[in-house]
Specification:
By secondary structure, the protein is of the alpha+beta class. It has helices spanning 14-20, 24-33, 75-89, 104-112, 124-128, and strands at residues 2-5, 35-41, 44-55, 58-66, 94-100, 116-121, 133-135, 138-140, 143-149.
Length: 151
């Protein structure tokens, strides 16, 4: 298994990206401005993440996804660790990530990887998504913001 930057001439793994963010429009917008990394295994992309510079010395991990049939194997943690390493290597001092209030598994994973909660963007998903999102039986309304210092 190898994590590598997706080449500009390669097709985006849109199906996989949309499992983490259901807005085709938003995904296309931030992928254009960021860097997309993929995890290849036997010529198949099974994981993806996107790093998006947001402010001086700050980068955001805006999308992280693992193929459903490969979840629970530590791939998500491996992707996050790779994102942390690459971000530090590029000179960023802080990495941020946001997830829905209903994403209980992701919230646990991010905290296990060293992220700390820094805020809540109330009604983010109501303002930015046309359809309601439900996950784990919970209405996804708010964006939970997390960050980690890289020094």
């Amino acid at each position: 298994m190898q994590i590598r930057r997706l080449n500009d001439n390669e097709q985006l793994p849109m199906d996989l990206l949309l499992t983490a963010d259901p807005s085709h429009k938003l995904v296309k917008e931030y992928v254009k401005r960021g860097e997309c990394y993929v995890l290849d295994h036997k010529n198949e992309i099974i994981g993806v993440y996107v790093l998006l510079p947001t402010r001086p010395e700050t980068v955001e991990l805006v999308n992280i996804a693992v193929k459903e049939d490969r979840q629970g194997e530590g791939i998500g943690k491996r992707l996050i660790e790779d994102a942390l390493h690459r971000s530090k290597e590029k000179g960023y001092k802080t990495i941020e990530i946001g997830t829905g209030n209903s994403s209980v598994g992701q919230l646990a994973l991010y905290q296990k990887c060293g992220f700390r909660m820094i805020g809540v963007d109330i009604d983010f998903f109501i303002r930015h998504y046309e359809e309601d999102i439900f996950e784990n039986g919970i209405w996804c309304r708010d964006m939970i913001r997390l960050a980690q210092d890289l020094d």
